[in-house]
What we know:
Layout: H1 4-21, E1 25-33, E2 36-44, E3 47-56, H2 70-87, E4 93-102, E5 108-117
Parallel strand pairs: 3-4
Antiparallel strand pairs: 1-2, 2-3, 4-5
Amino acid sequence: MATPQKIGDRGERLAADYLEHKGYRLLAHNWRFKKAEVDLIAQDGRMIVFVEVKTRSYNLYGPPDLAVNHKKEAMLTAAAHAWIDENKYEGEIRFDVISILFKENKTTEINHIEDAFFWGLEF
């Protein structure tokens, strides 16, 4: 049985491939700021996209994207602010969630939620 870390790593690789196939340009993978981590940072045209990837091998408690709660959103927002400052970026951004479910029948379900949440002004 695969560990949660291996399942998560596999999901992030699959999400990166998925985004590149859609024409996104990957800028960073597992970008860290203090305790926060952004799974993927990509460019979609002129927009920078901060992507949280949630991967599960079961659907017992609902789809994987339900694990992105307000606390996780706040951490992603803080990390995004740090990335923007570090890179002196002044354009548009958005936050996406990619939900990946590895099903028992060996199929994979990918759900890309664009603009999954709005970043607030509180830091």
